[in-house]
Amino acid sequence: MQHPLEITRTNRRLLEKILDSHSLEQLNKVPEGFKNNLIWNIAHVVVTQQLLVYKLSGLPMMADDEMVNTFKKGTKTEGVVPQEEVDKIKALLFSTLDQTEKDIEAGIFKNFQEYPTSTGFVLKSLEDAINFNNFHEGIHLGYVLALKKAL
Length: 151
Known about the structure:
Blueprint: H1 4-20, H2 24-28, H3 38-53, H4 65-71, H5 83-106, E1 115-116, E2 122-123, H6 126-150
Antiparallel strand pairs: 1-2
């Protein structure tokens, strides 16, 4: 069986293609009937992976506090994301996964704070967090595809 991070990488490659094939204006547009845009959804998956895997393990995240506060669960698009921030989000798509892989191999994940998700599934381990993250990213890929059609 493939490592669950390979599933995450596959999803992120699809998101990267969206980033590469849309203008800054398109990435920031909130189509009628939606509360978020393409770039919010893409940044949201980066932030959520960091929260689920690192914060719940009591470890420092690669996403800074400002990014977390802008794109975490319960937020919505509040303004235009500048190109510099889009570039940062794009870089984090894969650097966060590369670091997660290295950190797993290095055995730095020692603790995990149990977390009940909004879907009712309770995360009890790092493995649960990585697997749930894939489910979560799949949902947001679906939103991204719907947003793309609405542009």
